[in-house]
Each structure stands twice: as structure tokens, then as C-alpha cells.
Amino acid sequence: MATEIHEIFVHCTATTPDWMLMRSAAEKVAEIDRWHKARGWAGFGYNELCDRDGSSAKGRPIGAQTAAVVGHNRNAVHLVLVGGRGSDASDAFSDHFTEAQREWLLARLAELKRKYPNATIRGHNEVAAKACPGFNVKDFMRQNPLPTAGAPKQVERKRISLLGIIKAIFGGQS
Ligand SMILES: [Zn+2]
Questions:
Q1: Which domains are seen in the chain, by residue range?
Q2: pLDDT averaged over every residue in the chain
Q3: Which of 12, 28, 46, 78 is labelled catalytic?
Q4: Do 66 and 11 meet the contact criterion of CB atoms below 8 Å apart?
Q5: Residue 61: is the preceding peptide bond cis (ω within 30°)?
Q6: Which residues surround ligand 1, an ion (CB under 5 A)?
Q7: Which of 60, 68, 101, 127 fits a disulfide with 97 by CB distance 3.0 to 4.6 angstroms?
């Protein structure tokens, strides 16, 4: 049975833009895994990492326990963006991250929201005194609304035209 997901968190790696520049997203996951283990943690604690070029790699499977935010490691998905070193909680997304990362993040959030419509999208900094992910996720979501509004409009249009057909057949007099 699928785990219920209540929250979707956005994080950053707090690395410089040129960190492991020519390495793949999967190699970066492996490197962070080594760091976290060296600190005595359980390894790469997030579900997915998005690199500077918009490529991504998976960490822990969604539904498995994560090690990303104390008290939010069950029933949550944790996405981490490469970059964000020296960022502030109130910085703009584009101060520290790329357009490719914006596209990946919005596409992934839209997918996750379709799958878990009741999940709340949050930045790590909303639940802890941290800069991570280095921007205000609520503002970011207001500026980049997810494309979920398109579907109901189409259904509505179909209903209206169906009503039109019914009226045409039965000589609607409303
Ligand atoms: Zn974080």
C-alpha cells in the first residue's frame, strides 16, 4: 500500500555553483551520501536531487523513511537542489538556482501534487531556523503556480457544450 504523503519539502545542498561541475547527479548523490555517513547520519536523506542542468537522481524511495527534517521524515517527500551556498531564506530562487532547476522543480512538484493532492509544499526554512533551500518557497509557488487549473476548465467547457446539445434536442427554454 502506498504511503500517505502530507508534505513535500524543498532543500538545497548549500554547495557552490561549480561544485563537482563535470559529475553526474547520481555521483553527487553518492558524494552527499558519504558526507552524511561521515557525520554519523544514515546517508543521503532525501528522495531526489536536481542538478544545475536539470538532470536528477533518486535517493531514498518515496514512502521510505527519510533523514532530512526532524519530525518530518515520514509521510513527506524531500527534494534537494544542487547549489545555494551562502543563500538566505528570503533570497530569490534565481539568485542561487538555474532556469533548468526551476523547470525540473515545477514539473516534479506538479507530478507529486497530482499524486498527493493534499500534500503541502514547503521549504525547509518554514519548519527550522535555517536558510535552506535559500529562497521563500511560498513566494516561489505564488510566482510559479502549478499547471493544475487547466484540467477543470476543459471539463467545464465540455459540460457547457453538452448542455447546449441537450437544449438543442429538447428545445431548452431557460
Ligand atoms: Zn534542508
A1: 7-148 (3.40.80.10)
A2: 89
A3: 46
A4: no
A5: no
A6: 11, 124, 132
A7: 101
